Amino acid sequence: MTDLEQLQTALHSLKVLRSNVGIAFESVSNGLRADHGEDGKENKFILELQELLSTVNNNLRDVEGAVSNLSIPPGPFALGNTIYLSQEVTQERQSLYVQLVNSYKWTDKIRDYSALAGNILASNSVNKTYKTFSTTKRRKTQTSTHNVPPEVIENLITGIDRLFPDVTITASRPFVPNPVIQASLSRVLKAVIAFKGLMIEWVVVKAHSESNDLWTESRYKVFKKVTENCHAAMCHFHSPTMPELAVKSFMHWFHSYNTLFSNPCKRCGNYLYSNLPPTWRDLRTLEPYHEECK
Which residues are in coiled coils (predicted)? Predict the structure, then answer.
């Protein structure tokens, strides 16, 4: 048995001991009850208390045995400056330790998600090789999709606006020269899309009644799910060699959400599952699916 398994066994034994001690104290505090009856109720109460104390005694032996199997740490734990948190006497500063633990957990999740995102991007079309059909003619060097003239981006946005008549697009440039567009999809939803050159850098989907803040997510769960799926589609359609086609393909996929609340799931045939409509759109067929059915 590893050290971690022994520690889990000791903690489980301690948990059982605390539970049974609580039951014993509750029985003592309640005293004689109606279910003890009228005849010999004192003896029944004493027998019940003896049984509870015997159980507590057995649990205590289990805890002592489990603790004795634990290996002694080789030295003191390096807690750093967090060791001084135990000296705080004010209630507000005592909560700092909980916040610190949560920040450590958040950092670990960021590290795991970053590793997964790196693996996904590594397998995307960025690393694909392109064959040259002529050995005598050199392939033209591709221009960067980040540094392009503003006129090129304006033409792309205008083309998207003409391609989808039922999508209302308004553009602003808070990060000159990179635009941020608001794409309103009928009365269903709106998306705030940030560009970096000809590349979509960030997408957030919200209800029409919500703010246009790019960094604040929607308060509705359905639009949070759509935002997550937009991020996945943004990575899927990304192409450094054909950036304009990548943006138009993403917008064509995004346009399929005009039936978010009106089309049933292609798999189960239901409009709602777990109180949510089909929030996923197939990247090829654009058919609607619930998160659990895709």
Answer: none
Q: Which of 207, 204, 203 is nearest to 185 (CA)?
A: 207
Residue 108 gets which letter from DSSP? H
Nearest CA among 54, 52, 57, 58 for reference residue 22: 52
Which residues are within 8 A (CB) of 281 and not within 5 positions of it... i.e. 6 or more apart? 229, 233, 253, 256, 257, 287, 288, 289
For residue 183, the tally of other CB atoms under 10 A from its CB is 23
| Token output for 294 | 């895709």
Of 248, 253, 239, 246, residue with least CA distance to 284 = 253
Beta bridge partners of 167: 185
- Mean pLDDT for the chain overall: 83
- Structure pTM? 0.52
Q: Pick from 71, 66, 55: which is nearest to 14 by CA?
A: 66
Residue type, 292: E
> Which tokens is 267 given?
């798999």
Question: 173: which 2 tokens?
Answer: 């440039």
Triad 115, 119, 217: Cα angle to 5°: 65
Residue 17 amino acid letter: L
What pLDDT, on the 0 to 100 scale, is given for residue 7? 82
